[in-house]
Design brief:
With 709 residues, this protein is an alpha/beta fold. The protein folds into three domains: 5-254, 2-enoyl-CoA Hydratase, Chain A, domain 1 (Alpha-Beta Complex), CATH 3.90.226; 304-479, Rossmann fold (3-Layer(aba) Sandwich), CATH 3.40.50; 487-703, Orthogonal Bundle (N-(1-d-carboxylethyl)-l-norvaline Dehydrogenase, domain 2), CATH 1.10.1040.50. It has an eight-stranded mixed sheet with strand order 12-11-10-13-14-15-16-17, sandwiched between helices. A six-stranded mixed sheet has the order 1-2-3-4-6-9, with helices on both faces. α1 (28-43) links the parallel β2 and β3 (49-54). α5 (141-149) packs across α6 (151-160) and α19 (487-504) crosses α24. The two termini are 36 Å apart. Bound molecules: (2S,3S)-3-hydroxy-2-methylbutanoyl-COA (T1G). The site of (2S,3S)-3-hydroxy-2-methylbutanoyl-COA (T1G) has 23 residues, from β5 and α4.
């Protein structure tokens, strides 16, 4: 038996412990280890009951996701999976008790449900999150969960993918007892009680009384499909999970399991699942930074300070307060401070009203935000985040002041979205302590945090920033210091092409609906209206575009000159009236004018061309960012776009999507755009190199992160 799985005993109770840190992933070797342990204990006449428990911080958190790549790339045959293990557990003539702490997820919960009984500590979570990977439970979860918890709960968990706590799991029948003290002694006591009870153990597969009947089930399945339609945003797996649960109500157990495996296999080999699994690992890969190790000193962050209580500063202050970190919030005068606090209170009150926060939690978080008009207490701050107006002169003035009023070891971070971190750092005597923390609006909601390294940002400041991102429940991505960093730098050509398409003849709503049809959370023109057209307008005025030839953003500049800044003024690309919106005739008129000035013959443009002309602009700029080393990996760019710009995770992010389309196809199309539209479309050299050598962004990134030979 492998050291991955060990057995021990408490009297006549056999104990199987899984030791596969960090999350006891159910790899084939772990499954084999548990199976041989079960067979050994079943054969041992002195053993009357069996306990299955996870070592370390959690029970099994799922099948080993790394194994799926081997299956889908043909390196491994698609086999019966966990059936031998699950059948051995369920067929055992001796009661098998699963003891759960931490999380029992995916294959972990499925293994637990093949045991006869389940006990858990109160803090345990259980779930079937497979749909988040574009999969469905593939080891009997859709067949056993309805038998334990009923159809509605099984649908909620299998199609929604969210975990539930131990109390909820007890109430619906997934677990049999919440252990009060230590888990193992509680499990032993429960096992002894089951042995004393005598009779055959409770086999989940034989429980049929919660499967309902066609008449009562029909509305439940219809409701589940409606919920999936509302939430799925083009993802297939939730509907497939519903189909598999439905099989539990119409087929005998063994046939239902076969149906589930067929559906699981279909999902496993889908592009969506491969993309979602890529996002899962890419989100964890971003934390791996050359030169930063677990021994790099981290600066403890016990108190923060924010300069600027506007939309961004207020949201950042909330982010710290939500993470339990006390935060000073400074403004230049009382009215500005009062406005900032009022917005914070309103945001929290909205969350309480939605039931996602209790009033007590709101009060506790508000109490962590200390408003101030002075720098007096800034020496207590371990980190200061500057969130003032996006102008270099003002930012340098603020950083010069911060240099004087904070401790020398404090981190000084700027929330700038485009400006040069090195120039900002030059206003201080400690450039090694200066870094960019670019939050995305609304800062208390959006998960992405671009961490912008300056030339002199120290490894300790970088390491602390990456760790802090996780504490703030953000996904921190380290990026290089160039204008607009990664996200906004790629967003510029994306929205430029969206506006060029309107000039070339596409209707405003056609551009946006083509992209939402592709899976974007919002269309580019609607996003600009939400963010405020004046943001880009001011930046363009600060960085006058000296390109010869076709002028971009002509229509948008004219909208701004006429005072149309988007939602905040009631008109931008759209008109916002009575809670609805409609294309703004002024925007259409300005676009037609720009087309005339650029001598463009307007035409109707199909959605697939709209998607190509906008998404390929993202990809081309992303390739430049990679070759300049501004992003460490293609997957980092994917994470920026999935978490910061609503790029569909089911397509993996712009760079993964390019690999899926095929770089040669993308490159050839960009060459056509260059022919049609000129210099904006010169293909990035890296894209050309990879496309013409049959490579992918993923393989290029992997080769870059291999240790130097
Ligand atoms: N397989 C392989 N590696 C995994 C893994 C898994 N299931 N879960 C986590 N890891 C790695 C992760 O990549 C990271 O690696 C380290 O563990 C710590 O993870 C058959 C088909 C459990 C809530 O979807 O949700 O079962 O970066 O940073 O924040 O029907 O991990 O250190 O090298 O996320 O404390 C279903 C996925 C699988 C759960 C812990 N299960 N995992 O969060 O740590 S499919 C899941 C998570 C399946 C069956 C189906 C979280 C966590 P590294 P971490 P964390």
């Amino acid at each position: 038996m492998s050291e991955l799985v060990t057995t021990s005993r408490e009297g006549d109770i056999g104990i199987i412990t899984i030791n596969n840190p960090p999350v006891n992933a159910l790899s084939p070797s772990v499954a084999e280890g548990i199976l041989s342990a079960v067979q050994k204990l079943v054969a041992d006449a002195t053993i009357k009951g069996i306990i299955l428990i996870g070592g370390g911080r959690t029970f099994i958190a799922g099948a080993d996701i790394k194994e799926f790549g081997k299956l889908t790339s043909g390196q491994k045959a698609f086999d019966t999976g966990l059936d031998p293990l699950l059948n051995a557990l369920e067929d055992s003539p001796k009661p098998v008790i699963c003891a759960i702490h931490g999380t029992a997820l995916g294959g972990g919960l499925e293994t637990a449900m093949a045991c006869h009984y389940r006990v858990a500590v109160a803090s345990a979570q259980v779930g079937q999150p497979e749909v988040k990977l574009g999969l469905i439970p593939g080891a009997g979860g859709t067949q056993r969960l309805p038998r334990l918890a009923g159809i509605a709960k099984a649908l909620e968990m299998c199609a929604g993918g969210e975990s539930i706590g131990a109390a909820d799991a007890l109430a619906c029948g997934i677990i049999d007892e919440i252990v009060k003290g230590e888990l193992l002694p509680g499990a032993v006591e429960f096992a002894r009680a089951m042995i004393a009870l005598g009779g055959p153990p409770c086999r989940t597969r034989d429980l049929n009384d919660k499967l309902g009947d066609p008449a009562t089930n029909a509305p439940v399945f219809a409701m589940a499909r409606d919920v999936a339609k509302r939430k799925a945003r083009g993802l297939m797996a939730p509907f497939k999970a519903i189909e598999a649960v439905e099989a539990a109500t119409t087929l005998p157990f063994a046939e239902g399991c076969k149906r589930e495996r067929d559906i699981f296999r279909e999902c496993l080999f889908s592009d969506q699942s491969k993309a979602l699994i890529h996002v899962f690992f890419a989100e964890r890969e971003v934390a791996k930074i050359p030169g930063i190790t677990k021994d790099t000193p981290r600066i403890p962050i016990r108190c923060a300070a924010i300069v600027g209580a506007g939309t961004m500063g207020g949201g950042i202050a909330m982010t710290y307060a939500n993470a339990g970190i006390p935060v000073l919030l400074k403004e230049i005068d009382q009215p500005a401070l009062d406005r900032g606090l009022a917005t914070i209170r309103k945001n929290y009150a909205n969350t309480v009203r939605k039931g996602k926060l209790t009033q007590q939690q709101m009060d506790e978080r508000l109490a962590r935000i200390e408003p101030t008009l002075s720098f007096e207490r800034f020496k207590e701050a371990d980190i200061v985040v500057e969130a003032v107006f996006e102008g270099m002169a003002l930012k340098k003035q603020v950083f010069a002041e911060l240099d004087k009023v904070t401790r020398p070891d404090a981190i000084l971070a700027s929330n700038t979205s485009t400006l040069n971190i090195d120039e900002i750092a030059s206003a201080t005597s400690r450039p090694q302590q200066v870094i960019g923390h670019h939050f995305f609006s609304p800062a208390n909601v959006m998960k992405l945090l671009e961490i912008v390294r300056g030339k002199q940002s120290s490894p300790s400041v970088i390491a602390t920033s990456m760790e802090l991102a996780k504490k703030l429940s953000k996904v921190g991505v380290l990026v290089g210091n160039c204008r607009a960093f990664v996200g906004n730098r790629m967003f510029d050509p994306y929205v430029r092409e969206a506006q060029f398409l309107v000039e070339e003849g596409a209707k405003i709503e056609e551009v946006d609906s083509a992209l939402t049809g592709f899976g974007m959370a919002m269309g580019p023109l609607a996003v600009l209206d939400l963010a405020g057209l004046d943001v880009g307008w001011r930046i363009r005025k600060e960085h006058r575009d000296t390109h010869a030839g076709r002028k971009p953003f002509l229509a948008e500049d004219r909208l701004c000159e006429a005072g149309n800044f988007g939602q905040k003024t009631g008109a931008g690309w759209y008109r916002y009236e009575g809670g609805g919106r409609s294309p703004n005739p002024d925007a259409e008129r300005f676009s037609e004018e720009a087309a005339r000035e650029n001598k463009i013959t307007r035409r109707s443009i199909p959605p697939e061309e709209i998607v190509e002309q906008t998404v390929y602009a993202l990809i081309n700029e992303g390739a430049r960012i990679l070759e300049e080393g501004i992003a460490l990996r293609a997957g980092d760019i994917d994470i920026v776009y999935v978490y910061g710009y609503g790029f569909p995770a089911g397509r993996g992010g712009p760079m993964w999507y390019a690999d899926t389309v095929g770089l040669k196809k993308v490159y050839d199309r960009i060459c056509q755009f260059e022919q049609q539209h000129g210099k904006f479309w010169s293909p990035a050299p890296l894209l050309k190199e990879l496309a013409t050598s049959g490579k992918t962004f993923a393989s290029w990134s992997a080769s870059k992160s291999e240790p130097e030979a």
